[in-house]
Structure formats: structure tokens, C-alpha cells
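User: Okay, second chain of the day. Same drill as before: sequence in, C-alpha cells out.
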Amino acid sequence: MNTHFTWIAFYKEFAQRLLSYRHNIQPMLDFIYTLQDSKGKSLTAYIHDSQKHNVTNIDPFSIFAIINRNISWDNRRKICSEIKQFLSIASEVPTDFSGIPTVDNRRSFFFDWNDWSKIDALWDLFEKVVNGQSCVVEFDKVRQNGVAIGMLTMALYWIDPYSFLALDGRNKKFLQELGISVANVSSYDNYSELLAQVQEAMKNGTIPYSSFPELSRYAFEIGKNPQQNIIPTMATNHSDIIALLKSNKNLILTGAPGTGKTHLAMELAYELGADEKSIRKVQFHPSYDYTDFVEGIRPQEDNSFKRVDGEFKEFCKRAMLAQTTDDNMMVGLNDNPKVWKVSLKGTGDNDVRQDCLENGYIRIGWPAYKDIDFTEYNPNVTEGKKVLKAFQSAMQIGDIVVSCYTEKVTDAIGIITGDYEYDEKGGDYPRYRTVRWLAKNIRENIMDVNGGKRFTLSTVYLSNIKPAAALEIAQKHSDHTQSKINKPFVFIIDEINRGELSKIFGELFGAIEKGYRGEKGRVRTQYQNMIAEGDPFKDGFFVPENVYIVGTMNDIDRSVESMDFAMRRRFSWKEVTAAESYDAIIANNAAFKGNKAEVEARMARLNAKIKESLGQAYQIGAAYFLELKNDDFEALWKTHLEGLLFEYFRGERDAEQKVEELHGIFING
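Assistant: Same drill. C-alpha cells below.
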């Protein structure tokens, strides 16, 4: 399952629906100005004329740019969710934005707000592209109107990424590194010639990608990390390793230094079906312990202490939610959501309940206290201080609320999206928190999921309902297709052998084993008595079935021998050899500009001698050769290889002589 490019189907349908607003743009503008982030801040306030007034006309590419700006992943997802609802889009909200170039936040529109005469030309081009028609004339007219080639091709790529390639900075640089010039592209004819050249290069294997989105995604990854010149998954078949990981749930990649193990771990996660939100990477070290990994006691600002989930336990909670709900349900959740019961002006139908469900918030009362801080002790607050403190500060953005309709029934479930607000216009119910309702106007009995308990009279309190149970009810009443049920979650542990594993994993040795995944492997942790009601691990911790663990380690690190055998046998092991790393990192890497044949020969000579002297685990992986500049092998030796090899022989009387011998073999043969 490929979790990259889930945005393409959504964007194409969005473009088709948007076209129908060309001659009736006001409803679309009204909708655009309602878009807000989770804290209620406008996401479109930048769209205004020179007098700071809302605009009355806009082009389609500037509308698309609202999603494709330098804003958070969650906000981009939130905008897409709102668009889906407004336009009744059938495609699922994207779970990734792989390979999408974004516009500069300072220039997120395609025309001058003081000259609206050029908007029609943009709509003309948009209409041609959406309908799959020739757009030569329209393209060149937009160029003549002053839209830069990078911006223009970026916009076309958003709409039809299999026909158009964005000439943004990262793609242009990457194409130039591949030997394809983009310097003279100014008209549609120039652009068309370039597209044909890139497509031919992909067809004959010069560029190891089969589509523009794949090329763009890799260019983006290279832009983020210039040292990462390893070819991605599309050019390498990892089916045997994926089968091993699926079979055992736990895998350790071993091998010599520089064989690309950490990068391979990330690629395996993507191939397995994980995405940016379901991959977590940590690095073990001697100071890393159980409190970092599972849970521990942490000091708070008020000098008290609190039990806090570690990285792995927090990750497993997120994975549990993905077993029963789709990605649309999970938008806006925090990493450790709690489930709150709230009464909206008591039970049954009433005006406050109707207002809350229609307008996306919850409201509670105590107007006599006015807008005061309930987080600190206040002698004037007598009644309701526990409820008010919970509503104002204990309830967090990303927590879940379950509305009480009767003592046994909920009528709505949502996610808190905003901080506490006080508004006197609310009358007897002036205290607000904004909510994204996942399901509303429902009637669902909560007794079973609330530990057999009825809702009580208290207005706001922490319920016994577990997040997964609340979201499952919401999913039941949602019209979203459950496209991501049981999505894989991959926890990557870099240099896994550098930590003291028995100390880090504690009682989880058994719980990670494939035969004990899920609730049947439940174990009581060291701080079990401190876990609150409603926590999914209140009755004991377990590792969900959809969690995979991938560790990496260098063979030459002798600390592997100190790994508990009980721990070692719970992992499958896969060696990444130096020869394999050459194939993946150099041989199939179109971005590598060195003499590949010369690299292969020198690497083979050097490793043959190292293997003879020290053993296979000490060979040099191909990643070191990514540092080669202008085929200057002597410089590569001095800056990256000599020091490493000297460390191999440190302590031996003839260390310098042995390193010099390797130098001669590497340089002269």
C-alpha cells in the first residue's frame, strides 16, 4: 500500500468542483474567510486588498495556495477537511502532502490585488487544465501577465501532477544535478520540451522514477537533507525485508558503518504503509531509560510530580486510535487525548445545546464569577471551582468531549480545538471552548464504554470512556469511508544496542513479542496504580497489533554482545552488506555525479583488505562515498576514511603502518 500522494485524488476533485464557482465566486469567498486554525485564528486573513478589505474576486490558483502554503501539516489537513465538507468531495482527506512544493507565505496569490483584470486569464488556464485541453495560449498569456514560471508550473502541478512538473527551486536544482538544464524555460514551448526530456529520461532509466510526483518527492527530501543522496524505495525492492517485518513485527538492521541502515528503516516504514504521522524515530544512548521509553515521574511547574507517558507508550496510544477510526476522525487529536463529559445546559433538547452543535463549541455557566482565573486558589469561588478549573485549564486542545443528552446517552462527540474563552454575550453560559464535532445529533448509549456507569450531574469531568471507544462511536455515525483502519505505526530505534535494553524495556520484553501483541499481552507497569480512569492502559499496558519496531545497529559495536538474549530472540535480524549498500546508494543513484565504476573498484579493493584483516563487520559502506567531490579520492580518504580506519587499529603497535597500507590499496590498487 502506497501512502504517498494521497493528495492527488482529492486535489483533482477539488479542482473540478472549484471550476463551477468561476462565475459565482462570492459563496466560495464567504467559505474561504471562515477557515481557522485549531485556536480560532484565521488562516486566510492575508487575503485582502490594498485597503485591508476582504476581496470580492479571486483566481483558482490562489485558492489552491491556501492549502499549499508554509503552514502546519495539521492546518493543511484541517483546511482540506473543511473543503471536503463544503464541496461534498467524495475523495478522502489527504493523509500526506508528499512531493508538493509550497508557495512563500509572503506571496501566496497569483495576481496583484490592485489589478484584477488579470484574473480571467488565470481562470481560462485553470479551466483548460481541469478539462484536459491544450493550454498553450492560456499558459503564455498568464506568463505575459507577470506570473513567474516557478509559481505557474507549481500551480499546474497541484491540479494535474502526472502531466505537469513544478519548476520550484528544489526541483530545478535536482534536475540540474541530473544534467537537465532548466535555465531557458519561459514559454509553454520551452516548458513542453523540458517535460518531454524529463519523461524520456524516466522512460530510459536515466532518471529512476516513473512519474513527476515521485521525482518531486525525492527532490523535496534531498532539499531537506543535502547529505541524503540515497535512492528511495521506488528504485529498490524490499519485499523480502517487508515480509520479514510483517511476520515478526520486530526487526533489527545490522551491518557495517555507512551502509544506509537508518535510511532503509525509514523507507521500510513508508513501504509498509505508514506515513509522516505514524512514524516515530528515537536514538538510544547510555542515559536513555525506562522513564523516557515507557513512563516515569516528572516534575511540574507547581513543584508537584506527575506520571508521564514515555515516547513508546504515547506512540502506542496513537496506534490504538488508528485501529478503529480513519484519519478524518483523528485530525486535531493531541498525542495523549483524554475524554471529558460535558453537559450543555442539562439534559435533553435546549437552546444552548442547539447553539453549540450548530456553531462548533461547548458552553458552560457560572456567569456571576465573571472572567476570572480558576487555576489558582480564589476565596471568592465557592461553588463549581473543580468544574471551572477543569474547563479552563485541565481540558486540553486535542482532547475529546462527549456531550451528555441523558444519564445513559450521548448526542455528540467532538475534539477540543480552542483555548478557554469568556464572552458575556453567552448570557448564563458565557464560558466557551471551540470544538470540531465528529458526530452530532446522535443517540448512543454509553454505559458499556463508560465502565458501566451513568453520567453524573457534574457539568464537566474526566469520564471513564477510553479515546478509542469514543472515536469508534463517532466513526459509527460518520459518513467517511474507514480508509485507514489499522494503519501501520512504525517505531524506529536508531543504534538500539547503545542503550541498556533490559532497563529501557522493563516488563515490556514479553509484550513486544508477536505472539503477545494486543490485549492478550497486557502487563502491569511500574506506575500502574497512578494511571487515571479513561486511560486506554488503565488495566495494563500492551503493544497494539499495528505497531512495528525497527532497530538499527553497527556490527562493529561490541555492545551487541551485552544485549539480553531474551531480547535478541524477539527480533528478526537482517544484515545490510557493504556490497548491497553500493547497489542502493551509488549504482542506482542518478543524483550521484562521481565515477561509479571507479568508486565500485576502489571500494571493493579496500573492503577486501579490511575483511582479510579485521572481518566483514569493519568494511566501509557506500554512504561514505557520497562525500566524493570531483572524483578526488585522496581528499575523500583524508577527510572521511583515514580517521575511521585508524580507530579500527588504535592500540596496535603498527596501526599507522596498517592504515597506510590500506591507503595505498585504495589509491593505487
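The first strand starts at residue 250 and ends at 255.

User: Thanks, on to the next one.
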